[in-house]
Amino acid sequence: xxxxxxxxxxxxxxxxxxxxxxxxxxxxxxxxxxxxxxxxxxxxxxxxxxxxxxxxxxxxxxxxxxxxxxxxxxxxxxxxxxxxxxxxxxxxxxxxxxxxxxxxxxxxxxxxxxxxxxxxxxxxxxxxxxxxxxxxxxxxxxxxxxxxxxxxxxxxxxxxxxxxxxxxxxxxxxxxxxxxxxxxxxxxxxxxxxxxxxxxxxxxxxxxxxxxxxxxxxxxxxxxxxxxxxxxxxxxxxxxxxxxxxxxxxxxxxxxxxxxxxxxxxxxxxxxxxxxxxxxxxxxxxxxxxxxxxxxxxxxxxxxxxxxxxxxxxxxxxxxxxxxxxxxxxxxxxxxxxxxxxxxxxxxxxxxxxxxxxxxxxxxxxxxxxxxxxxxxxxxxxxxxxxxxxxxxxxxxxxxxxxxxxxxxxxxxxxxxxxxxxxxxxxxxxxxxxxxxxxxxxxxxxxxxxxxxxxxxxxxxxxxxxxxxxxxxxxxxxxxxxxxxxxxxxxxxxxxxxxxxxxxxxxxxxxxxx
Length: 514
Fold this sequence. Notes:
The protein is an alpha+beta fold. The protein is 59% helix and 16% strand. The chain contains 15 helices and 13 strands. The strands form three sheets. Strands 9-10-8-11-12-13 form a six-stranded mixed β-sheet, with helices on both faces. It has a five-stranded antiparallel β-sheet with strand order 4-3-7-6-5. Helix 1 runs antiparallel to helix 2 (34-52). The protein is flat, with a radius of gyration of 45 Å. The relative contact order is 0.05.
């Protein structure tokens, strides 16, 4: 009996080594879902439990003793409830398949399946690893003992076998837990070490790749003037065909002796060596090259433990940078101009309107001329969007913007999109009467577009309401004053029936302009 128990333990221990080496070690190195990993664990421990049945200990008629229940424990411990079910099902099926159908096989298979159910339940508990393992092992051994109680009629033999079972299961369980924990930690440490080494290599390769591809020439020399590192960009800048690695250990002075004719000013090359001798950081030194290019040279000593042990040089072709700066300035000018344009309608936006209104207010305050503002709103535009869709709504706003822009005639007049379906017009030097004429011209022009609007409450076509505000600016007021008047007039136009022009007179009373 003891010999067979030792054989069972030896097989389990050997299998643990093989399993950890070929599965846990490799599964940590590649992506695998948690469910799939549990299935594999259950299957492999199920195979182990099935193989242990060939090394069993006969303890009664058609009744055998082995450590197959421990394999279910290991499966539940590493694979959770999924692994427990898979391994228990595999062991139960193998018992009947290998030894035929009998009452003993049925009881043994059922017992292993019950062990699997119990392990699956315990595996879901959040316990410390050691406690969980021993709880799983104790529960499975308890069910094996019950099976022995049924299969061994001799109570004295039952007591002897039960003692062997419990001692073997507890000892084997502790040993397997410690061994599996040790192997798991060992392979996890190995995995972390490999990962760290891989990350370090990747970081070094990435650093070298970045240095080789940055748009600046780099050169690092040691205290004796020998090159430690030079990147491809610097060699390209000076037309050097040698590989960067081939220049390691070459004296920098010898390398730059080849480039003597490349400098427009021979003294510039000598000043570079003076910088290294003086160990004084320098930034933004411009060096003119014979081919018309201009390089910007930066120098910095490299300190380690309080002393200089290397020198870093950076060369940059600022000819292209200056061209880029010029292009950037031109782009900024265009962007500033475009930032004042409404992207949908192509006319000025609210930001431009605010800037222009302040400018015209100050100009009219100085000249004593009136400033008239029109605020225009497309009637029932939400219903138009709901009925015809936003794309047609955008097209409608573009047509209205073009129409409004065509209705202003004076060079100083200014049309802008005020927001949503609202537009605004600045008419500097125009009286309220003149503004009303322009507003009515705009209203009729929009009406003449004959843009169908079936759901409008104010006619079968798209229409606009216009509010007029007009003041003579003074130094004490602000530009918001004229906007407020126009806004009140627009509100009166919308509440009074829409598709009309409303103005505020000097007394602040709204009236419909006809």
